[in-house]
Design brief:
By secondary structure, the protein is of the alpha/beta class. 50% of the residues lie in helices and 13% in strands. The structure holds a DNA duplex.
Length: 777
Amino acid sequence: MYVEGCHDCPVRGKKVGSRGNPKAGLVYVGESPGVEELRDGEPFIGPSGKLLWVSTPGGDSPEILTTNAMCCRIPGKADENPRLKALKHKASITCSGRLLDEIKAHPRRVIVALGNYALWALTGNYNFKISQVRGKIIPSQYATIGIIPVMHPAALLRGTGNLRQFRRDIAYAHHLANGGAPYQPIEPRYEVFGTPQAVAKAVKDLINQPLISCDVETTGFNSRTDKIIDLGLAYNPEFVYLFPAEVIPHLQRLFALSRSRWLYHNGKFDVQFLRKAGLKARVDEDTLLLSYALDEQKGVHDLETIAGDLFDAPDYKHLVRPYLGKGRTYADIPKGVLYKYRLAPDVSYTLQAFRQLREQVRADVHLEKLYTKTLIPASDLLSYVETHGLYVNQDQVNTNQEVFEGRLAELLTQIKAIGGENFNPNSTYDVAELLFDKMRLPRKRGRSTDKKVLAKLPQKPIIKLIQEHRKVAKALSTYVYAIRDASAHDGRVHATYLIHGTRTGRLSSNEPNLQNIPRAKEQRSMFMAPPGKVLMEVDLNQAELRSLAALSNDAFLCSVYNDPAGVSIHDRVAIKFWGANFTPEDKMKAKNVNFGIVYGITSTGLVEQIGGSKQEAQGFIDMWFDNAPEAHTFIKKCRSAPVRGVTLITAFGRKKRHMIVTRENLHELQNEASNFPHQSIASDITLHAAIRVRRRLIKLNAHIVNLIHDSMLIEMPNNPYVIAAVGKTVITEMQQVPRDWGITRVPFKAEAKVGTRWGYLTDDAYKAALRDSHMTA
DNA sequence: TGGTTTAGCCC
DNA sequence: GTACGGGCTAAACCAT
């Protein structure tokens, strides 16, 4: 094959042409051939091709014309290397004539552009980004229906993109090529109900509807300081009722009395604003949580993405964006624009998405259980935890600020005396230059200067200074300034807990993250109980190891946790390793192995913690598993799930699906899989316990103020009766939840600590309260 | 201004 | 040569 464009082409290598029916109505256009394609002279027969064909309805078919934007191979590193990138760009331009000639030779219905280069060559528009336009019909002179941009399968194999979306996009192209109608969102009509009389009329329409979709637009993300601008409701996606903020009080009756099921997209956010405005809002259905139940990957659950995927809803962001920018809020958007392009579509799209997603969840018994029994109740729990917030000890924050700022200034002076006036210890570039170029210290792992590397370098004064500087700088920026600023409004921090933040079912926390506060007493004590109250922390004891024991039914682990004498697992393992006369150091090592096991630790990782040789560490790991063979088998079975194409499912209905397995990511997927079940179960036990106890605690004026994977923090009056009642309630439920969910082979154990400052909670204080209340533990 | 990399904190 | 699961934030750096 030789065409005129090849004269100007900078590559001029061996060429790979097209395959399939030259007259096909459906064309796949890829980027450039890979190694396998070059060898066999056909496009899409390597790993990318395999993924493409398994994602194609009906599989590999000669009725599809398959070709590439470039017919020569461009080395895979081209996107990182500027010289190669320029070459690739030039090649794609010179080759586009050949591509378009081939396409134009016969009438086409649909062209699938796989990746940016295919899209650019087909449209001539280099501003397109595949990640932004994928799955949308782009009109084209070359195809009657148009171009459907889709992520390149190679990108998915590298770990970017989302397989569900990829499959849906390909299926959509086939649907269109086979004469199917384009997905068409319903664009709702809307009306503003701005007077009490108008509201009364709207309420009459709405109050007996079985399902109402609700959304609010606000001036910001903080329900304490920001305000609702407008509220939208709909029971039919064709029509949205809009209510300006000033008439919202007139909706009280609707929210309080309606028997409707209330639908939101991330209702945890909306209901906090609505409750502040005096409405009895509740979340019965939630499209964000439905989407997460169906796909535990992150980054695909915002309403724009869902509506775009399900019915090709237009992206109106660009129409709203010009009115935003620094210092401006949604209140600065003209009402007409806000209603037409934001509020009305959001309310209607939520309803439209719900119809599809709810059915998909209902069709799967595990997901139905997860959604109704865990995700929706968690939304209710967390909207309350977020609103209540965690009290901040401003004195401790101020003290920490003074101490850390003072120390940081000292350190900086000393560091600059060695590194020079312009030396910035926060800059990894500066640190690497000083250590490896000027001081000629030995390099490890490239030019990394992280904690472990510094610890292994010869202990020069500058290294000690940099180590301490990093610690103090972190303490100051992340854990003093952020907490100080976040609590400036009402003396509390109100973190946001994401239900969909992890692939295991753990919660995540942000702004601020209350799940990674340093354990140092003076830092944890930035959080405390307000005057007259105390904090209680209730922890699950070794939750993940107990989960592993229960799931694997391992004889050794089960005997440890069912042991009436209560000899700890660390002691039991130490005895197995060293006999009855083990030393305290031995016990420490045993503890590290025990905790490492649940994370799938390797000998290298274990050496980092306990020292010694790699062989010795491997010996401990082997011995541990020899001693717990059923646990070993269970973990191995989980590890092999990605290769076997098996989806892991927990008792709570959490799933770990294995979408794309490649040689590169296999190891990572196996590690995730082996960790998933016990991590997931441990956090669900905590979450369910919190859901169960919340209302009972409120009657005692006790409030959950933080949740950290296997523990919860509770604020309550400093009264022994209350403390004892709360402790008993929470401990009982944390221990009962696993039994109720069929996790019965080992008991779970919860423990309570009490005090005024988070850094100084003790079990003695809890026991004292039990004594004082004349109750027994 | 926004995205990526490197670092450090937690369970 | 191979690092151990799940997260979030800040600062520097680099591209646009």
